Amino acid sequence: MTMYLGDYAVSAMIDMKWNTNAVAGASITRATNGTIRIYKGNSLTERTSSVGITDTEDVDTLTGVHHLRIDTSDNTDAGFYAAGSEYQIVLAGATIDGQAINAVLAHFSIERSGGMLALLKTVISGTGVNVTAFGGTTLTQAGGRPEVNVSHWRGTAAATPTTAGIPKVAIEAAGDFAQAAADKAWVTATRALTDKVGFSLTTAEVDAIVDKVWDEARSGHLVAGSFGQGVASVQGNVTGAVASVTAAVTVGANNDKSGYTLTGGEEDAIADKVWDEALSGHTAAGSAGKALSDGAIPGIDPWTVPLPGSYASGTAGNIVGTQLDTAVSSRLASAAITLTGGAVTVGSNTDKSGYGLSPAERSASAAALLDFLDGIETGLTPRQALRLCAAVLGGRLAGALTSTVTIRNAVEDSKVRVSSTVDGDGNRQAVTYDLS
After folding, report:
1. 3-state DSSP assignment of residue 161
2. Domain range enclosing 331
3. Rounded Cα distance, 90 and 37, in Å
4. Which end of the chain offers a freer environment for a tag, N or C, measured as fewer CB atoms within 10 Å?
């Protein structure tokens, strides 16, 4: 039975959910989504534009549950959505569980004729509502408006109606109005009252006055003999005294450091200064600077003089430049190891005993083989070929007696791996593949 979504106001947003199932009843996604068509009334021509129509498959990760939203405020097809019209929602050209599916999903209306929305709109627009009674009493009419007789006012019976049928309502005696006028006049007359007898300040008012006194600028209160002038004099004396004390505390050329001690930071600074001092300025005969500058052993520079004995035989050399460098180089050459810039390069070593690939390296090698481009034939890797073989040998087949045959992926059964059109003899005419 087709689902009726309801009667909507003009320009409303319509939302609905629907589902797809396999022949056996399990929820299944659409192999081919198809298109959503909307027909108006008994017309056989659907809305030409899909703007404003949103079809979401497998919503909220729920396989086989889909959401459809229709925005009737979209006017791409001018005048298509209009009050007083009926509409049908149709799914066309979908493929579900290997079957070609066309189906009516639901229908709805926009302010259908005689419906509640249309009636309310008529009432609100004032096109006519007849009122014949009020409180069970038939109403009289005057100028097209119903007349209502009011007998009470806030629970009290009203006086006898006067001219034009308006009831009398007693509000206040005339004397009360006179007293109010007198009170107003008294207030106006006493606005300029300067006598504060009987008045008292609140705590907040007192605090505000105190703050005002202490925050007042002194510049306007320097009259001779006043409190403000006295405060200014005291401030000047204090400022002068502070200046005198500052001058007295300043230390001049005082060379007597008795009683002073250096802090740890000061000692460290002095030590750093000594070790960082340049030797060029401290080469007096017999000094430590002279000894460090000339070398630890008089007349011998350990960076240029050859080693004694066999290390110095032959061509004259030194520790870094020739002797040690040559000896180490010859040992490395015989071991087929080359040191270049800190790196170790292995030469012609063909013995791989004890070597082995890590699990990650083995996995990478296997993946590289399976994904070797054109490894089976042009456009087909070994992995893709194995997917095709598994689908054809073990995947579910559908449409064997139709012009379209589909084969799904084996075991997982989550997608159509091969789809082909066939002639009457079953010969494949066109084949499409999903190798992902």
Report:
1. coil
2. 302-344
3. 5
4. N
Which is it for strands 156-157 and 337-340: parallel, antiparallel or unpaired?
A: unpaired
DSSP 1-38: -PEEEEEE-TT-EEEEEEE-B-TTS-B---SB--EEEE
Domain boundary among 66, 90, 118: 118
Separation between Cα atoms, residue 53 and residue 13, nearest integer Å: 10
Q: Which of 74, 100, 118 is the C-terminal boundary of a domain?
A: 118
Q: Which two tokens mark 107?
A: 């229908």
The CA distance from 57 to 62, in Å, is: 9
Identify the pLDDT of residue 311. Answer: 47
Which helix (H) or strand (E) segment holds residue 260: the answer is none
d(CA 84, CA 110): 6
Question: Bigger pLDDT: 6 or 239?
Answer: 6
State pLDDT tens for residues 263-291. Answer: 888 888 887 887 788 877 778 887 777 76
Count CB neighbours of 395 within 10 A. 22
* Domain assignment present for 55: yes
Q: What is the DSSP letter of 253?
A: S
Q: Does 197 fall in a domain?
A: no
**Residue 390 CA to chain centroid, in angstroms?**
43
